[in-house]
């Protein structure tokens, strides 16, 4: 009798197979395989994955050849089965996966260009989101995703009073603007602080800590984000926070999220830690 294996997809972006990121990938593969997962790896550099979002992503005639609009054209191509083979292959992997882990070194406060290209090209409108299905109602809301990355900076450099600023602000565009926008349940990121300037014992401890976390990863509570229901979802209403919700938030000491700060201090660790289990605070849970 055939049984359905859980599937995990690792989208991996590092040029070297002997890097710290490769070691993290290997630990992830080993641990998840031992847990019974079918683990798929998209090694973007090894695949020579094309980062540029161009007309080459569409097979056949364009809907509007006079004004090429990538999002519109790829949406129609997805609907009609006319996306390029490399995008279709990645979408198939993503469709099968219950868990997606993006493994990369932090480049310029973001993902490497080749991974950004994967996000730009694979998360096609229609396949990954629509104007009716976004954020907590997103197409991929049954799946979990997370960022796992190394930095060239120490943890103190990414504090609110550190030279690089608050890591929560750095992560907001990636975690809210891409992953949560497509509906993913976003797990807290795994951040490996400055492995290249850490002694071997410290790097080993980082890998051991990650392996330990992986054992309970799928039981973790996701990060919280402001749900669509608390906004006026119309152009007339400006997609703004509903007045009654804003009124409720006036007495709160912090903003709703890192992005929806409402001119207040940012909620601590909003993009790097899930709220404690059983937390009934409506600001954290964002239920209406």
UniProtKB/TrEMBL annotation:
Which Gene3D superfamilies does the annotation name?
3.40.50.360
Output a single Gene Ontology CC term carried by this record: cytosol
> What InterPro entries does its record include?
Flavodoxin_fold, Flavoprotein-like_sf, NAD(P)H_dehydrogenase_qn
Which Pfam families did the record assign? Flavodoxin_2
As given in the record, the signal peptide range reads none
Reactions this protein catalyses: 1-(beta-D-ribofuranosyl)-1,4-dihydronicotinamide + a quinone + H(+) = beta-nicotinamide D-riboside + a quinol
Where is the stretch described as Disordered?
Answer: 250-288
Citing just one GO molecular function, the answer is: dihydronicotinamide riboside quinone reductase activity
Cofactor entry: Zn(2+); FAD
- Function recorded in the entry: The enzyme apparently serves as a quinone reductase in connection with conjugation reactions of hydroquinones involved in detoxification pathways as well as in biosynthetic processes such as the vitamin K-dependent gamma-carboxylation of glutamate residues in prothrombin synthesis.
Annotated family: Belongs to the NAD(P)H dehydrogenase (quinone) family.
Protein name as it appears in the record: Ribosyldihydronicotinamide dehydrogenase [quinone]
What lineage is on file?
Eukaryota, Metazoa, Chordata, Craniata, Vertebrata
């Amino acid at each position: 009798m055939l049984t359905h294996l859980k599937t995990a997809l690792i989208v991996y972006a590092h040029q070297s197979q002997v890097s710290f990121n490769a070691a993290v990938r290997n630990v992830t593969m080993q641990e998840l395989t031992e847990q019974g997962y079918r683990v798929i790896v998209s090694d973007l550099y090894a695949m020579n994955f094309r980062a540029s979002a161009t007309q080459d992503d569409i097979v056949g005639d364009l809907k509007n050849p006079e004004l090429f609009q990538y999002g519109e054209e790829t949406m129609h191509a997805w609907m009609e089965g006319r996306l390029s083979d490399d995008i279709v292959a990645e979408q198939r992997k993503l469709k099968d996966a219950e868990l997606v882990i993006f493994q990369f070194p932090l480049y310029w406060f973001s993902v490497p260009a080749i991974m950004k290209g994967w996000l730009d090209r694979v998360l096609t409108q229609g396949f990954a989101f629509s104007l009716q299905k976004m954020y907590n109602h997103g197409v991929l809301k049954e799946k979990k995703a997370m960022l796992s990355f190394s930095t060239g900076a120490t943890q103190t450099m990414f504090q609110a009073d550190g030279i690089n600023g608050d890591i929560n602000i750095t992560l907001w565009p990636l975690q809210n603007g891409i992953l949560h926008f497509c509906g993913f349940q976003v797990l807290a990121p795994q951040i490996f602080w400055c492995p290249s300037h850490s002694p071997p014992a410290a790097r080993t401890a980082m890998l051991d800590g990650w392996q330990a976390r992986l054992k309970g990863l799928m039981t973790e509570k996701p990060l919280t984000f402001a749900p669509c229901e608390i906004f006026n979802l119309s152009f007339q209403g400006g997609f703004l926070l509903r007045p009654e919700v804003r009124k409720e938030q006036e007495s709160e000491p912090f903003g709703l999220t890192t992005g929806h700060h409402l001119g207040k201090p940012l909620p601590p660790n909003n993009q790097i830690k899930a709220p404690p289990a059983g937390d009934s605070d409506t600001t954290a849970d964002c239920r209406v």
